[in-house]
Specification:
Two copies of one chain form a homodimer.
Chain A (H helix, E strand, L loop, with lengths): L7 H19 L4 E2 L1 H8 L3 H9 L11 E2 H11 L6 E6 L3 H9 L1 H4 L2 E8 L8 E2 L2 E2 L1 E2 L3 H8 L3 E4 L3 H13 L4 E4 L12 E4 L2 H17 L6
Parallel strand pairs in A: 3-4, 3-8, 4-7, 8-9, 9-10
Antiparallel strand pairs in A: 1-2, 5-6
Chain A binds a DNA duplex (22 and 22 nucleotides) through α1 and α3.
DNA sequence: GTATGTGAAACGCTTCACAGCA
DNA sequence: TGCTGTGAAGCGTTTCACATAC
C-alpha cells in the first residue's frame, strides 16, 4: 500500500524533501535522482531512498523521482492539500515578523487569525489581519476550525495561552517561548529557541577547537 | 576527568538543561533531582542522569544536582563563559525582531554587529547597533573576532552571504533561510525554518487522525 | 549503464534495572 | 530511605551492498 507507518526520523525529513522538490520544479527540473535530492535537502542519498520507499515506489530505476508527482504526494502525506488554518498568538516583534516573513503561505498554510493581549495592539492590521483580543481566542478558534497555533508571547504568558488553546481544541503548537509547555499527551509541541540553537553551535565550535586533529 | 566526548544527542540537550537550571536558580532552588530537571526541560530522568554523567559526577546521591554549580559547569562546557560575539546578517523584519527579542543576551551572547545589504536600512540603529553595509562584512568580522553568525537574509542571498562569512573565518552559522547552505566540512550550520516545523506538526496531526486508537 | 528499492549489518540512543552512596 | 551513576538490554536509525528494473 502506501504509508503504513512512517518513522519519526523520516517524517522529520519529509518537509525538507518537499521544499527541495518545489524549488527544483520551479527551476524546471522534471526528475531528480536520490543523490540530487539529498544534496538539495542536506541529507544522504541512502536516506532519501529509504525515506521515500515508505511512501511507496514513486521512482523509476535508471531515471530518478518525478518532481511534480512526488511533491504532490508529499503534500498529501503532510496534510497540506488545502491551505490549513493556523492561529498566531502574540503580535509583538517576533509575531509580526513571522506574519510578514511569508513562511506560512510558503509552507502551505493560511493565517486564520492574529491574537494579542496588549490592548494597544488589538485592532491594528498585521499581514492583512485585524489583531483580535485574548478574550476572543476561544471564539476565534471555534470560528476558524483551526487546530494549529503559533505562540510568540512572553514566557510568562506562554503556558496560560497553551492551556487556552488546548481547551479550544488545538492539537499542534509551534512555540517560540523558552519554557517547556505542559500539555496533554495528544497535543504535539515543537519549540524554536534562538538561544538554544546558538548555544549548541557554541558547544560544537568549542569542541572543534579542543580536538583540531579531527580532519587530519 | 571531564567531558571525554559528548554524544550529539546529549549535546543537543545541554542548552535546555542550562536554561532550566537558571530558571530554577532564579526561583530559589538550590538542588534539583534528575526527575525535576527532566520535567523542566522536557526529557526523562534517565536521560538527564546519563547526559550529566558525561560531564563528570556533579550530583549527590539522595539529594540531587547543585543548581548553581551545574549551571556554571554547563556554561563552561558550552563555551559561554564570556559573552561570545555574534554577527547578525540581515536587518529585515526577522532580523530586527530577533535583535529586539533578547534571545542573544539571554543565551549568553553579544551582538557584535548588524549588517544589511539594503542601503535604505544601513545607518539605522537596531538594538543599539548602527546597521552596516554588506561591503563592511569582512572588516567587521575581523574587527570583532566573531566566529558565529546569524543569517536572516532572503534565500537568494543566503549562499553568497554564507560564502563571505566562511571566507572571513566564521565557523558556526544559524540560518533562517529555507535553502540548504553549502559550506566546508569544518563549518557547522543549523537551520531554523517556520514552514518546515509547521509541516511536521501538520503531518503528526493528520497521522493522529488516521489512527485515533493510539491512546486506547 | 544508471539509479531505485531493500534486506542485513553496524551504529547510536534510550530505557531498564539495580548497585552504590549520602 | 532516596537519588545518583552505570552496565546491559532493547530499539530505532543509518549505512552498506547489491539484486532489480528501466
Amino acid at each position: 500500500m502506501g504509508e503504513a507507518s512512517i518513522p519519526d526520523a523520516t517524517a522529520a525529513r519529509l518537509p525538507r524533501y518537499l521544499q527541495a522538490l518545489r524549488r527544483a520544479g520551479q527551476a524546471g527540473a522534471v526528475t531528480l535522482s536520490s543523490d540530487q535530492l539529498a544534496r538539495a535537502s542536506g541529507t544522504s542519498a541512502a536516506k532519501v531512498r529509504k525515506d521515500l520507499s515508505c511512501l511507496g515506489s514513486h521512482g523509476t530505476r535508471g531515471v530518478g523521482y518525478p518532481v511534480a508527482a512526488l511533491a504532490a504526494e508529499l503534500a498529501r502525506v503532510l496534510g497540506l492539500d488545502e491551505g490549513r488554518p493556523v492561529v498566531l498568538v502574540g503580535a509583538g516583534n517576533l509575531g509580526r515578523a513571522l506574519a510578514a516573513y511569508g513562511g506560512f503561505e510558503r509552507g502551505g498554510f493560511r493565517v486564520a487569525a492574529v491574537i494579542d493581549a496588549d490592548e494597544r495592539i488589538v485592532g491594528r492590521t498585521i499581514a492583512g489581519h485585524r489583531v483580535r483580543s485574548a478574550e476572543e481566542l476561544p471564539a476565534v478558534l471555534t470560528g476558524t476550525a483551526a487546530t494549529m497555533a503559533v505562540i510568540t508571547v512572553p514566557d510568562t504568558a506562554a503556558q496560560s495561552v497553551a492551556d487556552t488553546l488546548v481547551a479550544a481544541g488545538v492539537t499542534a503548537i509551534l512555540s517560540f517561548a523558552t519554557i517547556y509547555l505542559d500539555v496533554p499527551e495528544h497535543v504535539r509541541v515543537r519549540r524554536v529557541d534562538l538561544a538554544t540553537e546558538l548555544q549548541l553551535l557554541s558547544f560544537y565550535e568549542q569542541a572543534d577547537e579542543d580536538v583540531p586533529a579531527a580532519a587530519g
